[in-house]
Each structure stands twice: as C-alpha cells, then as structure tokens.
Amino acid sequence: MVIRPVPGSMTELRGAEAQARVCTEMKELCEIINEYGKTPCKGLLPPELADATKVISFGELFTIYTVISDKLVGILLRTRKYHLTYFEGEVLFQKRDDDVPIFLMMPIEGIREYCNNKAMQARRSVSPMPQ
Q1: Is there a contact between 21 and 75 (Cβ–Cβ < 8 Å)?
Q2: Around Cβ 1, how many Cβ atoms within 10 Å?
Q3: CA 6, 11, 13, 16 torsion-angle sign
Q4: What are the pLDDT digits (tens) for 37-74?
Q5: Contact 27, 51 (CB under 8 A)
Q6: Phi, psi of 89 (to 5 degrees)
Q7: Does residue 113 sit in helix, strand or coil?
C-alpha cells in the first residue's frame, strides 16, 4: 500500500520539489560523466553496452564528484534505475570499486531532455491547495 500526502499539502509540495532536485542532480552527474569520460571502444563492448556514449572509472568519478556532493553513490543508483548509466554491482565503494567502469547510456542531449521533463512533471504533479 502506497501512502500519499494530502493533495495540496505542504508535504506534497516538498515531495515534488525533492523529486525535481533529484532529477537535477542526476542530470549534473551525467554532465560530469559526459565531460570527463572517454568514448568507449565500441568493438570491445558487449552488446548490451553498444549504446554507451562515455565511460569513466568509479575512482575518477568519485574524485571529481566528491567536491560537488557526498551523495554520489545514491545518485548513481538512481541514474542506473532510469537507464541513464550502467555499472556492474549493487553498490560501489570507494577504493574497492575504483576500477569499475561507469557507462553513460545515451547522448547527453537526450539525458538533459529526459531529466528536465521529469523535474517539470514532478513540479506539475502537485495538487492545487484546497479551498
């Protein structure tokens, strides 16, 4: 059973804003992977990664992203859930998984559009305040 906040309540508004913020953070993470990642060698990738546009190691991404946010692993899990990134394993840990490659799974323009639309949908989902 899913419990939803009362339509038009501040709780509903805060939830929508949190969802929109997460979408923005997902987009920012993908922007970093796009900027600092390398183009993968298509011939060496398995078929399920044929659409990958960039790749970066978790260790390198951790070094870059730590300055920006301490929520890297959580945001990475969210981007994988929406098929924006791909990496092996359930959760990545600093040091142990530094060599794990993280793949960006679509062109950055598509990711920007997807995340912007998702954030807008979250903000629009808020019910009007009851009269």
Answers
A1: no
A2: 2
A3: negative
A4: 999 987 888 888 988 999 999 999 999 887 666 788 89
A5: no
A6: 100, 160
A7: helix
